[in-house]
Amino acid sequence: MKKFLVLYLIPPSVMDEWMNKPPEARKSEEDKMSRDIQKWMSSRSKVFSDPGAGLGRTTRVTQGGTSDARNSLVMYAIAQGDSKEAVAKGLQDHPHLQIPESSIEVMELFALPDQAKA
What we know:
This protein is about 30% helix and about 35% strand. By secondary structure, it is of the alpha+beta class. The longest helix is centred in the N-terminal third of the chain and has 20 residues. About 10% of the residues are buried.
């Protein structure tokens, strides 16, 4: 089986809007989403070689140094499957997609050449 990187995205503007809501207004929805994702993931545990994790704030590294940065990435996972299309199709009912403007990206992982042999 092939391995795939699964990236869960939410636009920063949507996250900002969500975070501007009072915490008590967010709590029940966040708890429900967390339960839905846990239930969804446990029913498909054989698909994921690494169930992943949430992602924190970003630091961008360039030749000029480092700086704070923002992107749409909020979670990742590693999935297994016969093809990118098959993995993507299996994600179409993921609870993450209930979030407005959210998306999931799937890309195959390839082994890098062995640097020790170079």
